[in-house]
Structure prediction request, 224 residues.
Amino acid sequence: MKKHVRILEKAELVSTEKVGRSRTCTLGQRDLTEVRDWVEDYRQALEARLDRFGELLERTKGEQP
Amino acid sequence: MSGQTSTNQTEITTPADREIRIERVFEAERERVFDAFTSPELVPQWWGARDDVTTVEEMDVQPGGRWKYVCSGPESDDVFSGVYREVTPPEGLIYTFEWGGMPGHVIVEHVSFDDLGGWTSCSRGARRSARTQTATAGGAPVPGRRRARAAPPPRPPRR
Prediction:
């Protein structure tokens, strides 16, 4: 468990504070919108590329392969 | 947009830990879809982003045959290459895929085309097996051990 938390801490997704024998976690500095934006960027790029594929199929309609 | 020719609904799933699958349905017969995917004359018309210019340098669509595209965008040239493993017209094909920016990181793509009667469902799945050796002709990528502290990979181009 400790190991997992340390990874999250290193990634700045959580920060922890040790009080006595227990450690409390709070959400860290880095928020997940960065990750969400990154994924969303790729999803849009992918859609655009598949749109191009669809447009090609539309243009070549009626042609025999 | 190509509203009439496709459902415009791409489904992205992750069926396994290192696998991503992309599916979309197009209004076109399966043979035409296969042709658009495997013809050197047609690939430059859809590969990459709209402003990119894609050149097919190699495209030997048969098991063991190589493919290599150079995609020139406003900022950089990107090379994509691999080896065909299975070619089954018009059902689909399997090939290795490597981006020049991350040499040695080979993924295996499974592309299948399902006939829906005038419409075709295209499914493209990419599976990555940890760190792999450079693609050799038809050779299976060698599964490597996942490194505990791998450096973050460089950002792949958006295409």
User: Anything to note?
Assistant: Residues 33-59 of chain A form the longest helix (27 residues). Residues 52 and 58 of chain A are 10 Å apart (CA to CA). Chain A has a mean pLDDT of 85.
